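Two folds, back to back.
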Amino acid sequence: MNKTELQTLVAVLQARFETHMPRHPNLAWAQVQQRLDKNTAAHQALAQMEATGGEPDVILQDASGRLLFADCAAESPSGRRSLCFDEQALAARKENKPAGSAQGMADAMGVQLLDEQQYRHLQTLGAFDCKTSSWLATPQEMRRLGGALFGDRRYERVFSYHNGVQSYYAARGFRAGLWV
């Protein structure tokens, strides 16, 4: 990423951060900028989140001061849909294979799928996935049995469900998270 691209990305992130202060009421942009300056590896991952329609913004801060950037686009990011859950599920599909998997794409981007707790926290900050759904990080016990979690918001409620890992839908993508 060259200097101009980085400056453009940081300007977009800062504008989004300042526009949506209720997502992070106890943070100032200077704190975020300081974390970004110390973690240059995060720049490319955030650029990928942005380029695929995620609209990343800070939604959490942990006890050590790390910040969680998460996709805050109203619907599951458009550049990350029609994916089965993981590479093992993709390899097992014999017909009508999707272009890829949510876990494979997340790994390539250097991000994580949001887990159920992070997803539910995100939903306290706005109405997300009212028309789409998003694959979520899934406990290994469930994955070993061939299932995975996904979430959405319908009827003013947040739901998490299960589906077979090989399934994929045009309206299901994944929401990424990145700790910085």
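---
second:
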Amino acid sequence: MPGIRGTRETRRTVVRPARPPDIFSERFHRVARYAIPVALGLLYGYWAAANRRDGGPITGENVLFGFVTALAFIVLCIAVAVLAPRLMRELHSLTKSAFAGAAIGFLYSQGGAGVWASVVLGLVITAAIFAVFFYRYYTREDAEGNRIR
């Protein structure tokens, strides 16, 4: 029958590249989700305290400043890691890059730099990291945020 040939639907199979096998267990990923921000926060707090004392003696105030800075960094880092993936790719990129830019700007200000110099450096870092993250998410997600690779 000549009319049947034109009405037949063909199914297309979408071939996606296989993901490499995950060498770490699910437990390792759960632990790393919080261990990495804690380790980074302690390093960040130490760095901020060292910048602030500027080679002077270590005081109780300086140690307290380091721990408070570390705690703030850890809380914000975990919040960004949990909340940012739920956003659109533009806001996802902006959230992570703004956190990084603000963190670098704060460290720079603790070294004795002026407010405007710290703000400009933070904005430059934010813009550079935003470009990298946006490109990464734009090339690996569709418009709804589903991973395509």
